[in-house]
Amino acid sequence: MERDEVKREVRPQGSLVKEVTLKQVKPCIAAEGKIRVLMELDSEIGDIIPLIANMYPPGVVNYVRKKNILTLTIYDRIISLYPSGKISMNKTHDVEEAFEIAGELMDRINRAHDSGGDGSDSRDMSRIGPMDVHRCLPGSNCGDCGESTCMAFAMKLLNGEQKLDSCLPLKEPWMQEKVQCLEKLLGEEMMETLGWSGY
Known about the structure:
By secondary structure, this protein is α+β, with helices and mostly antiparallel strands. Helices cover 29% and strands 21% of the residues. It is built from six helices and seven strands. The protein has helices spanning 49-53, 95-114, 130-135, 150-158, 176-186, 188-193; strands at 6-9, 19-27, 35-41, 61-64, 69-74, 77-81, 86-92. A seven-stranded antiparallel sheet has the order 1-2-3-7-6-5-4. Strand 2 and strand 3 (35-41) form a beta hairpin. The protein is elongated.
């Protein structure tokens, strides 16, 4: 399964990353018939990895602050981003899918870069749990979201399996205090990431 390196300009208009190089393809140990890949971006991303970590629901993020390595459980696979710009990805169908997913990651990386932050003021989402979110929800257990309780909704929300907009009572004008509680807890960007479109 050895192959030559393949370089592609995936996001020509990107502000930080434009190209990605496929460095290595090997059989995936975790899923028979799939591949694992090692790719490398055309720029280092260490300064913005903390920002990228906060662009995803906390339940899919494993951020090792000391080493500045971000591992995401998204697209039904595990993807790791390294400060050097390397990306490892498992459970991938083929090389084309790897480039497609790399392109989507590059969009987020460029967006984080464009935000102008350095991650120093980013929230540590790993410290926010379902109880914290539950305290900011209506607590009516109405089931409008499709979950049996607000606690179940909070858990699925943090795992990226639910969207804030699914909580219909939050859209009511008299729930502004609860929405403000969520904004204070999560921040505006994470509210968007978790599917909040406003009243």
